[in-house]
Predict the 3D structure of the following.
Amino acid sequence: MRESGLQKILTSSTLDIGLAPKILASEKCRKKSFLFSALYAAFIFGGRHLMNKRAKFELRKPLVLWSLSLAVFSIFGAVRTGAYMLYILMTKGLKQSVCDQSFYIGPVSKFWAYAFVLSKAPELGDTIFIILRKQKLIFLHWYHHITVLLYSWYSYKDMVAGGGWFMTMNYGVHAVMYSYYALRAAGFRVSRKFAMFITLSQITQMLIGCVINYLVFSWMQQGQCHSHVQNIIWSSLMYLSYFVLFCHFFFEAYIGKTRKERKVD
């Protein structure tokens, strides 16, 4: 029986990651997520203190390259995981797309799952540019980076249900977000509506994340989804906190700012 074109794409890959997922899933490596988070927090407070009396760095070209690299990586990740997610949805339905653990072990998807989790460490580099360029660093930014790193590295080992949705959504939003950052850094004038769309996409992502957690919990009671109550609680609290913070950011950055501009006019 012949494989379909989509099936061939999803089940074949020249990338062999060998023992890499097992290495990342080790307890020793999971503990390193706390070390990275602590060093990251120390850099934030130490870096801001050092930059107080220094002139800001321009860093436009490095920022373009950095954002473009993450944009390309996220686009490829979104296409690969998105194609796999679409395939499962079309052939097996919503429940299987949520509960299926094949995202962690499939020939192609396992690489992008591993790359996704691993990428949360280098993504901390976003903050370096903010501090060195003396831009405003909001709580949402560094809180999001730290909690995503900790949660991703700890959940990967357990191959919890819903992971495919979480990864696919994150790849998709980051593909658009880093593309926007790259264009801005390169000096292109990008419509404010594009930035609003990105924030709305992030808010939607958090809502869907909460729904997925609810479905995992419901189907776990029926023995059809592999997860742990503790993991679902932490994930739900994380998504809910992101939802509140992104909504607050949207109001402050777009609605509140627009009202102030109208008053000035």
In short: The longest helix spans residues 229-264. The two ends are 69 Å apart (CA to CA).
